[in-house]
Write a structure and sequence with these properties.
The chain is mainly beta. It is globular, with a radius of gyration of 24 Å. The chain has a domain of 166 residues: Jelly Rolls. The longest helix has 17 residues.
Amino acid sequence: MKVALFVTLSLIAGACLAQGAASAVFVSGNAQIVGTDGQARAAVRGGELFAGETVETVDGRVQLRFLDGASMSLQPATRFRVDEYRFVEQNGKASTGDRGFFSLLKGGFRTLTGLIGKQQREQYKVDAAVATIGIRGTDYSAHLTESGLSLSTFGGLVEVCSTAGCALVRPGETFVVADRDSKPQRKGPASEGMSVMPDLPPPKPGESLPAVTPPVQGPPQVPPQVPPQVPTTGSPLQGPAYTPQTGPSRGVP
């Protein structure tokens, strides 16, 4: 009986360890995933990302869909690591043991959080070298450079903390943190520069889809020069000038 129980628990633990954290729903350009053994593989649509692995977008873009429903768009020149991830769905809810701990090593992302971020907020954290990001169910973007961390909130609340203090970043705000010993400072309105790419249909079971690459742009085509037609009789054309239709720019919800 004890042996059977031990084997069962071992199998459960092994299954949890083997559980993927996310899958790639969009890949463009030169992007790769570095495993825990240091070996790199090409990032392809439908490919899985496991805990301990790092996504390097190089000159490409990758959008991830996590098991709890979160969506994350990684920008070019980004290194993002899944430090620890666990999600066991319980009737559409996150359990108390679920967690999502990540590291932004460089570059930027925009994310729409899933069930863990909405229901187990204390179990969600992104370490970004100079500060730590916590959330309260939200839509936000983060960008880390040598100058520090810039964080914008589009929905919900984000808490950003350095060793000098914490700040709540509300919708429409951007805060910056220069280094670990600097307090988060409000910079201005939220930047819409990082948009979440639309989800693509998930791959079929067992289907391996190639990376999506942007089309090669050829040299611009120069239209032939046509001499203007000058009317010999009659008056010039009359009428209101054409006015292009404009409207408020729309960000991604």
